[in-house]
Design goal:
This protein is an alpha/beta fold. It is built from 12 helices and 8 strands. The chain has a domain of 210 residues: Zn peptidases (Aminopeptidase, 3-Layer(aba) Sandwich). The chain has an 8-stranded mixed β-sheet, with helices on both faces. The relative contact order is 0.16.
Length: 339
């Protein structure tokens, strides 16, 4: 927040009801630049998946410090920092309820989607013991399943979202969570008079090391997807199977379009590759076990948190160079389209 204040942004801090690991205050920070009555707005969000906020926060801060002067005067920019502050503080991908925030934005007036494939492997993904022997046994069974049904099919079973196992991975919750409600308020209140809105949601953990894939949540023949490709070029549709991401239930970009009413919304997630997908999944399994069956502040916690952080935030400068370059490219193209 200090960077945003120093650069003259309009600041809001939304305090989270819980605290961080040492009792510290946590929350969502919003920094806004540009005229309140602008017809165009670009919103950039970090930390949807808590630990992924390490990368997202660095990119937002670095952009404000060095690139703010490139903002067209007629475009308002809104930076949302650490949408999932609990996950960011605790070095988790999920929130205080073990909810994957990007599976929580379904229509809660209806019954949540079912995922029978996940049901079959729930106890393998998050076993009650995390001994070396149990890790090896359950991982081997999961790999055998991947050989049987295919790795992409297993990825879909595991990561597309599930609503029946509250201590499992990729759990979508039982109703709108705190960050869901705050994002609803941010979208509706910060829109102002904007009729053209761009959204960039920053993620890490999938894909080629250091590469930032742009992921769309519409089919390729949808006008919003075609508009995104006009802005950015190569945007991969997750619903049409083009993306490194499985098609998701309850991602927030789709719901944000509904909240923004008649505005023309062009949105994409940018996904930066870190380590291999097996290492990412193993870190999430360890984290889920720690919070379901272990002690989140016990002797096992530091090693698990380090494992999760390593899976989603690479500190190697050689990784950060292409990550930053890609981010500047994506933001510049969005600003040019909105100007």
């Amino acid at each position: 927040m200090g960077t945003a204040i120093a650069s003259g942004g309009a600041i809001e801090h939304i305090r989270h009801p819980s605290t961080g690991p040492v009792g510290e205050t946590i929350g969502v920070d919003i920094a806004e630049y540009g005229p309140a009555d602008a017809e165009s707005m670009l919103m950039i969000v970090s930390g949807t998946h808590g630990v992924e906020g390490y990368c997202g926060s660095a990119l937002q801060t670095h952009w404000i410090n060095g690139q703010l002067g490139t903002r067209p005067p007629n475009v308002r920019m809104v930076f949302v920092h650490a949408l999932n502050p609990h996950g960011f503080a605790w070095v988790r991908r999920v929130n205080e309820d073990n909810v994957d925030l990007n599976r929580n934005f379904i229509d809660w007036s209806k019954a949540p989607p079912t995922n029978s494939g996940y049901d079959e492997i729930a106890d393998l993904l998050v076993p009650s013991s995390w001994s070396a022997e149990e890790q090896e046994r359950t991982t081997n069974v999961l790999m055998e399943r991947a050989l049987t049904i295919g790795l992409e099919a297993l990825q879909a079973e595991v990561s597309s979202g599930q609503y029946a196992h509250p201590t499992g991975v990729f759990y979508g919750g039982s109703g709108p969570v705190w960050s869901h409600e705050q994002l609803h308020r941010i979208c509706t209140q910060r829109r102002g008079s904007a009729s053209r809105i761009g959204i960039i949601d920053i993620h890490t953990g999938l894909g080629e090391w250091g590469h930032g894939e742009l992921i769309g949540h519409h089919p390729t023949d949808h006008p919003a997807h075609q508009r995104a490709t006009a802005w950015w070029g190569d945007v991969r549709s997750m619903v049409d199977g083009e993306s490194i991401s499985a098609s998701l239930d309850g991602d927030w970009l789709a719901r944000a379009e509904e909240w923004l009413g008649d505005a023309e919304v062009t949105a994409a997630a940018i996904e930066y590759g870190t380590v291999d997908s097996i290492s990412v999944l193993q870190s999430l399994r360890a984290d889920a076990w720690l919070h379901a069956h272990g002690d989140p502040v016990g002797d096992d916690a530091p090693a698990v948190r380090a494992q999760v952080r390593a899976a989603f935030a690479d500190d190697d400068p050689a990784w950060l160079i292409p990550v930053w370059s890609r981010f500047v490219e994506v933001v510049d193209h969005a600003l040019s389209a909105l100007a």
